[in-house]
Amino acid sequence: MNRAPSRPAVTPSTGSFPRAARVRKRPEFLRIQALGRRVPTRSFVLLLYAREPHGARLGVTVSRRVGNAVVRNRMKRLVREAFRATRRLFADDLDLVVIVRRAGPEASLWSVLDEWEGVEAEIARQSERARRDREDRARLAQAGKTGDSSVR
Question: Does the predicted model carry a pTM greater than 0.70?
């Protein structure tokens, strides 16, 4: 096993990923891709979108240029497992869409975890910005309902 001895053990997967924990509909993906905050890494782009707190949700996008169906499905499984293992990085009010940029033969759960933990500070920064964006959207929606044109 090529695991670093200092890495804590990751709890084994339950094999399930409930619907409530997934971004499932195309309009949701499009909204998150259009309005979400980006955190780029070597192999992924993490898109963070703040919403009302009902538990963090995950969506995964893997295009055909990443590889054949076997490679794409393997990357989806790795991303889901990494999301389960790093739940502490993503607050309950966030939707996360992960766009897989590339998948190498060395891709493993440990490499994904290392990559995501390496941008932990940037994830925290962009999460805060996403929350401010949510507050701005709510303020604009409220101003639209009341007819107040002074809010910008």
Answer: yes
Q: In angstroms, rounded to a whole number, what is the distance separating the alpha carbons of residues 56 and 48? A: 10
**Domain edges within the chain:** 19-144
CATH topology of domain 19-144: Ribosomal Protein S5; domain 2 (3.30.230)
**pLDDT of res. 11:** 52
- Cα–Cα distance for residue pair 19/115, rounded to 1 Å: 26
pLDDT of amino acid 143: 82
Task: Give the DSSP H/E element, type plus range, for residue 66.
Answer: none
Question: What is the distance between the alpha carbons of residues 114 and 108, in angstroms, rounded to a whole number?
Answer: 10
Residue 148 to residue 96: CA distance in whole angstroms: 33
Measured at the CA of 76, the angle between CA 31 and CA 19, to 5 degrees, comes to: 60
**Nearest in space to 90 (alpha carbons), one of 15, 39, 17:** 39
Which tokens go with 148? 């107040």
Question: Coil, strand, or helix at residue 91?
Answer: coil
